[in-house]
Amino acid sequence: MSPAAKSLVGERFPGNSAGMTVRLLFLALLGMLLAASPAAAQSNGCAGFPPAKLDLDTVLVPIQRDDALTIAQLTRLPGRTPGPVSAADSHVLGLTQARYGEQSQVSALFKAMGDGTYCASASALTISFGFQQRIVHVAREIPANSCLYGEVLAHEMRHVAVDEALLRETMPQVRSRLEQVIAEMTPVRSRSQSQAMAAIRRPLESAMRRIMQDFGRERDRRQAQVDTVEEYERVSRVCNGEARNYLPKPATRRTVRQG
Question: Which UniProt keywords apply (predicted)?
Fold first, then answer.
């Protein structure tokens, strides 16, 4: 009699998330793992599992607005990406904060092999990817009905548009890469269910880590095209130089900056 297969309720594991400069990556579980190639899967009794299914969702939370922070507070916020001018020589009139990342859940089928080992294969992968937090700030000193307020807010919304366009373009690539990972997955045989789940998760974790890194690099590149020296100088001059009305009066001139 062949070993009976049973399903395991989907196991959720920590996903990647990232802010402006920080990323939390998967921590792979360690253990003695007995990996199986397709041929080995048949020879060791680990064949006969159905292919895994992929459920991929896009995350794009609504934008929050917060105009309560002062220019000084926005300038001191941690995690701001470096702009084209030194942070020591700039004041932040507006800032867009975004946290992107992913959450994953894996379901698997198991076979108890009768010798104390288990065969296992992924049955379903549920993954959400996208922006988990989005906050747009305009400095508190700038009146909401002023010309400068409109200019600063428009600049920040360009950052928002860059993120949204990148996510739209990225999701088909994410799906394609994950489908390739699933196609290459093979059943594993291990001494415990936890070791088997670790082996199943490993290629998914590796793929998502690379996806996060690629997404972050491309996002940094595109956002840098919004935050240029020319754009900072333009905002400092528009509205008849209104920005000067809200800046501290230092001994030396500093550059107006936006996030």
Answer: Signal
User: What is the residue-wise DSSP string for the chain?
Assistant: -PPPEEEEEEEEE---EE-SS-EE---PPP-------HHHHHHTT---PPPPEEEEEEEEPPPEEE--S-HHHHHH-TTPPP-SS-GGGEEESEEEEEEEEEEEEEEEEEEE-SSS-EEEEEEEEEEEEEEEEEEEEE-TTS-TTSHHHHHHHHHHHHHHHHHHHHHHHHHHHHHHHHHHHHHH---EEESSHHHHHHHHHHHHHHHHHHHHHHHHHHHHHHHHTTS-HHHHHHHHHHHHHGGGGGS---SS--EEE--
Q: How confident is the model at residue 2 (pLDDT cuts 50, 70, 90)?
A: very low
- pLDDT average, residue stretch 13-19: 49
Q: Is the pLDDT confidence value at 16 over 50?
A: yes
Find where tokens 């509205």 sit.
239
Location of structure tokens 């299914």: 53
Per-residue CA distances from 170 to 167, 219, 234 (Å): 5, 11, 31
Q: Show me where the domains of the chain are located.
A: 5-257
Indicate yes or no: pTM above 0.90.
no
What amino acid is encoded at 136 in this protein?
V
CA 107 – CA 93 distance, rounded (Å): 47
CA 245 to chain centre: 38
CA separation for the pair 230, 79 (Å, rounded): 23
Residue 139's closest CA among 71, 232, 77? 71
Residue whose structure tokens are 């754009």: 231
Of 59, 56, 63, which is closest to residue 18 (Cα–Cα)?
Answer: 59
**Which residues lie closer than 8 Å to 38 by C-beta, 6 or more apart?**
186
Q: Which two tokens mark 158?
A: 């360009």
